[in-house]
Design goal:
mainly alpha, globular, disordered C terminus
Length: about 290
């Protein structure tokens, strides 16, 4: 049983402290999962690869953020969001089918590259490329899907559906609408309109407030993305870290859709907590 007073003493609304503690716990959990029997299976290995990428993307955000490179950190936030959604989508579907589709999509993606470079013909590594094996695998994969499904697999990866649809399927449509598109601008180019807006803020002395707003959104969304998926993984491998994640998961579910819960579990009244100085009720990752 928990010491209630000790638990209360550790509850904090300081997102930086929460993120530092979350990263430490998530790194421990990633090691636990790697050693767990679940990783002796293809679905487990794939799920672990997704989770490890979540942890490392979160850690990279924390490092870049210390250099005040917030826009660059938003690029990694999109990576974290995509990996979060992909992992949950993978877990919510048949593991054997998802593993097969994941493997097929990986081969097709590799083939696309090899064909673009003509299987490195005429280069020193040409002999290392098993062209006949790849072409044989290509035919086998094509035989498992109809034309439409095959094209979707090539375009969207193992899920066969767009990222927007994947987000909606795991209850993160709002996250897609409010964060994914903003993060995408940081990847492709910085919107000229936003550039002018920043210039206006600088003139009026509001630059610090704008950067603070961007940082706080970055931190809270990253917290939610790693925290929620960590709680799910901890539950999956029956980790003793689950209670610590339960405690850390306070306050940052701003973009979770009202319906489409990841675990299909309704929030009980006992799962609501209040933070000193925060007028809003907040929910833990367990949903």
């Amino acid at each position: 049983m928990f010491d209630v007073e000790a638990v209360k003493a550790r509850v904090t609304g300081d997102i930086r402290k929460l993120n530092a503690r979350l990263l430490e716990v998530a790194k421990q959990l990633e090691k636990e999962m790697a050693a767990h029997e679940v990783c002796k299976t293809p679905p487990g290995l794939i799920a672990h690869a997704f989770y490890r990428k979540c942890v490392r993307s979160f850690e990279a955000i924390e490092i870049i953020k210390k250099c005040r490179l917030y826009e660059e950190a938003w690029i990694l936030l999109r990576v974290l969001l995509e990996t979060h959604v992909n992992l949950l989508y993978f877990l919510r579907h048949d593991p054997v089918e998802m593993s097969r589709r994941y493997s097929d999509a990986a081969v097709l993606d590799k083939l696309k590259h090899l064909r673009e470079v003509n299987f490195y013909e005429g280069t020193p590594i040409e002999s290392e490329i098993r062209r006949k094996e790849f072409e044989k695998a290509d035919k086998e994969i094509a035989g498992r899907y109809d034309k439409s499904a095959l094209e979707s697999l090539k375009k969207h990866g193992f899920s066969g559906v767009s990222f927007e649809k994947r987000s909606k399927a795991v209850g993160l449509k709002s996250m897609y609408e409010y964060c994914y598109r903003i993060a995408s601008r940081s990847i492709h180019s910085f919107d000229p309109a936003e550039t002018k807006m920043l210039a206006a803020y600088v003139e009026k002395g509001y630059k610090a407030e704008l950067l603070k707003s961007r940082r706080l959104t970055l931190e809270s969304v990253a917290n939610m993305l790693l925290g929620r998926v960590s709680y799910i993984i901890a539950t999956l491998v029956k980790s003793p870290l689950s209670p610590e994640l339960f405690l850390l998961g306070v306050g940052y579910e701003k973009f979770r859709d009202a319906k489409g819960s990841v675990l299909e579990v309704k929030v009980e009244e006992s799962s609501k907590l209040k933070i000193d100085g925060d007028d809003e009720e907040v929910y833990i990752w367990r949903e």
